[in-house]
Amino acid sequence: MNTRMNIMLITVDDMNYNSPGCFGNPMPGITPNLDNLASKGVRFNNAHVTIAVCQPSRSVLLTGSYPHHNGARGFQAIDAGVTTLPQVLHRNGYYNGIIGKENHCAPKEKFFWDAYIQTLFRDGDGDGKGREPDVYYKQVKKCIQDADDQNKPFFLMVNSHDPHRPFAGSDDELRLFGMHCQIPKTFDPDEVYVPECLPDLPDIRKELAQYYASCHRADLCIGRVLAALEESGHADNTVVLFLSDNGMALPFAKTNCYLNSTKSPYIMRWPGYIKSGMVCDELINGIDYTPTILDILGLEPILDCDGKSFKNVVLAGQKHYDDIFTLFFQTANNAVTKRPLDFPMRCVQDKRFAYIFNAWSDGETEFLSDSRAGLTYNAMEEAAKRDDSVRKRKEFYQYRITEEFYDYRDDPDALNNLIDKPEYYNFIEKFRKRMFKYMEQSRDGLIDEFHRRILSN
After folding, report:
1. CATH 2.30.30.60 fits 6-317, yes or no
2. pTM score, two decimals?
3. Which of 142, 206, 245, 354 might form a disulfide with 57, Cβ 3.0–4.6 angstroms?
């Protein structure tokens, strides 16, 4: 059995930062395994992914590079010359395994997987659609055993498909899968937590109940994955990192640049190094994952990486960033969009303020993404016919305006755009300049348009 340090990166798909209990969800019993994991490691209160959509988010995590540097702005493969984390680990004798969401790491040959467990894997009489905890348990055990048989340390990326649409028990699940996946726990719509970015409507509560059932099932998957790790004998020499690839697939979250879009429930457990129950308030970005893992393992960094290691942030209380840069480029091709659609957005945020530039917003272009599928958006459309506040909220989501500015200290759900408030002018100007600097440093192709439309006026 190898005794070198192993890495297990666990992701869930489309889980909002405030959905786990340990990140403030008041619903009892929603995520007991995540809550337990957080109690044994560090919980990050200001951690973000760099881009809030599945494949580009994961491409950033495994390269440490902004989407416009690694080539995966939308659902494209990364560029041939980009170095990946598994590539470096392969060169250093690591066994690399991926379980679920494997097609979102493309092209396959750039990631040097020794185990490539496909999303629609079957096991016994179950077809879990990436949502069956016991299947993940068996696959993790097998991967670790394979690594041990080869006397190699391992890097395992374990990706739950929950709570991505279709949600547990929904009509969409039956339509898309021809079956309802197992639902270990259901929630009463009258008792669910409704994030303030959404209006409180009966059908929204119904869909949130389905979403939270999917979150709970994802948590059970995590519990089984960690059980497999414990049984392998490697729990004490494995760093476990957990996050969601982006926010929930509902309006004002996924495929945008809001707090509900990019903020992620990051957790890290590193036995012998990180004290139990730690909380980190430093700003972390998705570009930091690859350099952090390489730093933990004592391996040479990737020279053209955009991120930087946060190892000493958790070990020594080191300061990390004053602010971070997050982006959005392109939607997926799905039933709502019909084809990939470009909606360029940029955001600079610190722990209090966020400035967003919507380059696509022209008063006529309508925003489309899979967050408009299902019950929630339809409920907003119906309520908008009789409720003026819902109508305004829906229309803002559809068309946006060029600039948005929010004080997340008082308004984490981005309900009150402050861009025209004179008392915030100095803050807004500061953030405009920071955005230009980020665009300049990262060679962002949107810089000329930002200069023309914002800085030249």
Report:
1. no
2. 0.96
3. 245
CATH 3.30.1120.10 fits 326-371+399-455, yes or no: yes
Contact status, residue 293 vs residue 96, Cβ threshold 8 Å: no
Contact assessment for residue 57 and residue 246, using Cβ atoms and an 8 Å cutoff? yes
Which residues lie closer than 8 Å to 362 by C-beta, 6 or more apart?
none
Give the CA distances from residue 446 to residues 48, 435, 438, in Å, rounded to whole numbers and listed in that order: 22, 11, 11
pLDDT > 70: percent of the chain:
97
Euclidean distance between the first and the last CA atom of the chain, given in angstroms as a whole number: 64
Residue 124 pLDDT class (50, 70, 90 cuts): very low
Given 3-state DSSP classes, what are the helix, strand and coil percentages for the chain, each rounded to the nearest 5? 40, 15, 45
What whole-number distance in Å separates Cα of residue 400 and Cα of residue 385? 19
Distance CA 319, CA 339 (A): 42
Residue 221 · residue 162 · CB < 8 Å: yes
Distance CA 110, CA 155 (A): 15
Residues 6+ apart with CB under 8 A from 237: 3, 4, 5, 6, 271
Structure tokens at 383: 């309520």
Give phi and psi for 161, each to the nearest 5: -85, -20
Whole-number Cα distances in Å, 197 to 55, 190, 237, 328, 435: 24, 18, 40, 19, 25
DSSP H or E segment with residue 384: helix 375-384
Calpha distance 28→397 (Å, rounded): 31
| Pair of tokens at residue 123 | 């096991």
| Residue ranges covered by each domain of the chain | 6-317, 326-371+399-455
CA distance 336 to 407: 31
